[in-house]
Design goal:
371 residues, Immunoglobulin-like, five-stranded mixed sheet
């Protein structure tokens, strides 16, 4: 528990030290901020998730080899070897993750440490494993009570082996449930993105026209409202699904951290890729697309961001080597003109709108004809 808290504190501190300067540098680029948020979450939760996962794997491996260790001690005891020598002999055998702990016991016994104390220290070091911890408590009780410790260890080995088999079957069944949770989460993220991409423009248009879903209110909610709403929805859904997956499969909320990290990463990636970026649209209308050589080409239009007119958007009109720059007024509209080429022909006029690091370019054709 102490190691877990230490890793979590260090990870969060590192995420803050790295994330805050990056946010200050890229502000107010919300797209990059979204990816920085993903990085911060990864740094905060990633180390503790990796530690928990590796520690759980170590414990599982210990529990798998623990019955074989007990059977080895039981057989040695029945063969007439006392328990301390049985443990020292077992220290030469490979028991996976349990090998290190068995060798520690063998070394302690060779140094003259009393057997009960060695067993208690082993029990303390393996307290994260319920099977090993409870089994050693029974072994100690049998040792103090003077019972048949060989038979006790044999019975414990059989019981632990049976329980691990049942747990394996249970995990196999629950893995399917976790897969369903992941599928539901991915579908939910896709639905949220589809709602934003397909339904939101319709809602905005209906709200602007005064009819439809928002006809009874003063104005339709802004796109920022929906972006915040969808972000909170995705975050809550990711955390909840991850914790449920961990609780369902491994019976621990902390085990759900790795599932939460995966689901939250997918949700934030989808959000920053499909929802967070703003789309700027520009229109360009030419009063007369047929002009004389050297004449003035007059055009007008408007700029909107997510169906909302924007003021102070930069407009760049380009025609051959000539370029005209203007900005939209408070209504999001602009009017400007540019000189036509002096040679007759068909030319492409480009109009670029730039607003808050987002730009959109459209092209129009004009015909330059001699009088």
């Amino acid at each position: 528990m102490k190691d877990t808290v230490t890793i979590l504190i260090v990870s969060i501190a590192a995420a803050i030290l790295m994330g805050v300067p990056l946010i200050i540098i890229i502000w107010p680029n919300y797209i990059l901020m979204g990816y920085v948020l993903l990085l911060v979450v990864g740094i905060s939760v990633g180390p503790i998730t990796a530690y928990t996962y590796l520690e759980q794997r170590r414990i599982d491996d210990m529990e798998i080899h623990f019955p074989a260790f007990l059977r080895e001690l039981s057989e040695s005891k029945r063969a007439g070897v006392n328990l301390p020598n049985s443990i020292m002999n077992a220290a030469r055998i490979d028991y996976g993750a349990l090998t290190e702990e068995v060798r520690k016991m063998g070394n302690q016994l060779s140094w003259g440490v009393p057997l009960p104390k060695v067993l208690k220290m082993f029990q303390k070091r393996t307290e994260k494993s319920q099977y090993v911890n409870r089994s050693m408590a029974i072994v100690l009780e049998s040792y103090y009570g003077g019972g048949d410790i060989a038979a006790t260890m044999e019975a414990i080995a059989n019981s632990v082996g049976d329980l691990k088999e049942v747990e394996k079957e249970r995990n196999s069944i629950l893995s399917e449930q976790v897969l369903i949770i992941y599928s539901i989460h991915f579908i939910f993220v896709a639905i949220i993105i589809a709602m934003y991409k397909i339904m939101l423009p319709l809602i905005a248009v209906q709200g602007t026209s005064g009819a439809g879903l928002f006809s009874s209110v003063a104005s339709a909610p802004s796109t920022d409202y929906f972006k915040i709403l969808f972000f909170l929805t995705l975050t809550i859904q990711s955390v909840a699904n991850g914790l449920v997956a961990g609780e369902a499969k491994e019976g621990s909320l902390s085990a759900g951290l790795k599932h939460t990290l995966i689901m939250l990463s997918v949700a934030i990636f989808g959000y920053t890729t499909f929802i967070l970026p703003t789309s700027v649209n520009v229109t360009a209308n030419i009063r007369n697309n047929q002009v004389f050589p050297g004449g003035r080409v007059e055009l007008f239009g408007n700029v909107d961001e997510e169906n909302t007119r924007v003021a102070e958007a930069s407009i760049i009109v380009s025609l051959l080597d000539e370029e005209v720059i203007t900005v939209t007024d408070e209504n999001g509209e602009y009017t400007t003109s540019i000189t036509a080429p002096t040679i007759s022909g068909v030319y492409t006029l480009s109009v670029t709108a730039i607003y808050e690091n987002t730009e959109k370019t459209i092209e129009r054709e004009i015909f330059v004809t001699s009088p």
